[in-house]
Amino acid sequence: MNGFIFDLDGVIVDTAKYHYLAWKNLADELGVPFTEEDNEHFKGVSRKRCLEILLEMGNISLPQSEFDRLLVEKNEDYLSYIEQMDESEILPDVPKVLNYLRERNIPMALGSASKNARAILKKVNLTEYFQTIVDGTQVTAAKPDPQVFLIAAERLGTDPDACVVFEDALAGIEAANRANMLSIGIGEPETLTDARHVFRDFTEISTAFIESLLDH
Ligand code: G6P
Ligand code: MG
Q: Which keywords belong to this entry (predicted)?
C-alpha cells in the first residue's frame, strides 16, 4: 500500500458531534424526531443530502428557497460550534499515525465530503501533512460514490488498489470498497460491518499494523 487517504469528520477530529448538534437543532425546529442513531446515516453524507433525508423523515416538502435557507442555517449553526476548535480536538493518536507515515514519505490525502474541510484542517494545524485535499467543494457525486477517493488516488499518483482509506461513516466505507481500496473503519465493529478492518480509534492501531499495510 502506498497511498493513505483519511476522512476528516469523525476520523481526524470529532466534528461528528457538532454536525449532530446542528442537525438536532434544525430537526427540533422542524418537529422531526432525530436521534444519534439517525445521525449515523448522516455521517459522510453531503449537507444537501442530509437535509433531504431529514425532510423525508418528517414527510416535509419545502420550496427551494426555504430548503436553501435551512442549508445556510444549519451550516451557520455548525460553524458556531467549530469556531473555537484547536489542536486539542484532534482525536487520540492521530498525530502518531500521521507522523509515522510522514517520516516514511508515504503520500497522504484527505478525502472528505465537507465543504468546511480546509478550514477545519487549518484550525487544528494539520494541513501540511496532506499532499492533496479533496473536499465537498470538488466532487460532483457524494459518498457512497467513490469519486472523492478516486480523485485523491489520482492526485497522489497511486493506483486505487494500493490505497488505504480510514473512514468512520457507512457511506465512506462503501465508497472506499467501491473504489477498490482497503477500507479501515474507525468506530463500532457492529456498525461498520463492511470495513476490511475496524478499530474503535487510532489508539487501537499499532505501528506494527501500519507497517504491515506498507508491506502489503
Ligand atoms: C462529513 C460529515 C457529514 C457532513 C458532510 C458535509 O462527511 O461526516 O456528516 O454532512 O461532511 O459537511 P459540511 O461541512 O459541508 O456541511
Ligand atoms: Mg467522517
A: Carbohydrate metabolism, Isomerase, Magnesium, Metal-binding, Phosphoprotein
